[in-house]
Amino acid sequence: MKKYRCSVCGYIYDPENGDPDNGVEPGTDFEKVPDDWTCPICGASKDQFEPAD
Amino acid sequence: MQVYEIKKDIFWVGAVDWLVRDFHGYSTYRGSTYNAYLMLGEKNVLFDTVKHNLCSDLVHRIRTVIDPEKIDYIVVNHVEMDHTGSLPKIVEMVKPEKIICSKMGHKNLLSHFHKPDWPYHIIENNESIPVGNRTIQFMETRMLHWPDSMFSYIPEEKLLISQDGFGQHLGTSERFDDEVDLSELMYQAKKYYANILYLYSPQVRKLLDHVAEIGLEVDMIAPDHGVIWRTHIDKILQAYRDWSSHKAAKKALVVYDTMWHSTEMMAKAVADGIESTGTSMQLLDLSVNHRSDVMAELLDAKGICLGCPTLNNGLLPRMAGYLMYMKGLRPARKLGAAFGSFGWSGESVKHMNKAMEEMKFELIHEGIKVKYVPTHDDLKKCWELGKLMGEKVKEAVDNQ
């Protein structure tokens, strides 16, 4: 599963961990994360994430 | 101790740091201030604290106004230690009913001071807390410039306490913008923006739009560093709009480092070429210009020519360090070019071009390399490069 990086603060979304504090279960692909989800660190919107290499 | 009543029953109780010259790698020739504000009312509220070594200044100023134990709430607008360094001592002394912070502020305070038992009160974005006949409205400003950052707004007073936003590293005995030299003030505000906030320009634009949209009435902006804005608010807001939208002047920099003056000769020729076009130019040798000063000049420059010789197949460390620093601050929409002398391998221009490409600068030239010492013809090529930069800058600024 692919990780994504927040272009604002550098937070990495790791599908293995999800973001359970904000309603995203572990094992959720980034594509399946709700569109209104925001970066748990800086509040950036989902479209500001890019694939992390 | 001297205190300043900036609004009725609202006092500046901060500290002036006349000694600081290096603020985590940012040169602060004029020192700085760590501003804290005390608002009296049904609940007495302290907004932010000061760096740990100046805690006693804060305490004595508070004591000039009230007994510190009478403080009910401490608001932490920003967790960075120049504003929270005194927090552990102040919390112990004051025993506050609430430490008010954002959600990220709570997390970051825990990671700084490891005090899970402090009386945290986590506020939501845009939440208001009434304090007698006044209100504190909190506005999260995440990544301006830390995840925990927020503004406190007192609508009844039209007062915005803006933590690092609109700040300046300027240590003075004056507290207000109209009491200091305006060009010095604007320069320090610009240097602050360029070195602290530049990379968050998209967030700055969003915030300015949001503030305009909700029609926030402000007649005083009280930052956590430097003087308080009350007369030149429009000017600083306009400057933030310009800086965050990458508005540039007809200005280009020649930033270089040199070993045996060959690259310096090239830099001077490039500089002359820029000058010949009427574009404003600054020649900045990294051995005498601090990287944070160069960043201040880059903020409103359109073009940058980087010069560095090759050392051991790489760059001189000062240029490498500057590139690392500049890249982190994410300057945008710049025109770039590189030059440098070499002895046998000559990789420096390639390294500088690569760094500028990573920053998405538009390279106007493939770069100039000169073996050992430039000839007159080599310098002519450098002059032509400078002329091209000067012309391109004028054209780009006319079209921006």
Characteristics:
heterodimer, A: 53 residues, mainly beta, globular, B: 400 residues, alpha/beta, Metallo-beta-lactamase, Chain A, Rossmann fold, 2 domains, seven-stranded mixed beta sheet, 12 helices, 24 strands, 36% helix, elongated
The gist of it:
The complex is a heterodimer of chains A (53) and B (400). Chain A is mostly beta strands and 53 residues long. Chain A contains no helices and three strands.
Distance between the termini of chain A: 12 Å
Mean pLDDT of chain A: 94
Task: Tell me the total number of β-strands of chain A.
Answer: 3
Percent helix range of chain B:
25-40%
Q: Helix count of chain A? A: 0
Shape of chain A: globular
SSE run of chain A? EEE
Strand content of chain B is: 15-25%
What's the number of helices of chain B?
12
Largest sheet composition of chain A:
3 strands, antiparallel
Explain what the structure shows.
The complex is a heterodimer of chains A (53) and B (400). Chain A has strands at residues 4-6, 12-13, 49-51. With 53 residues, chain A is mainly beta. Chain B has 2 domains: 4-244, 4-Layer Sandwich (Metallo-beta-lactamase, Chain A); 254-394, Flavodoxin domain (Rossmann fold). Chain B is 36% helix and 22% strand. Chain B is built from 12 helices and 24 strands. Chain B starts with a strand and ends with a helix. The model of chain B has no long low-confidence stretch (mean pLDDT 97). Chain A binds chain B through residues 8-9, 41-44, and chain B through 104, 140, 142-143, 147, 200, 202-203.
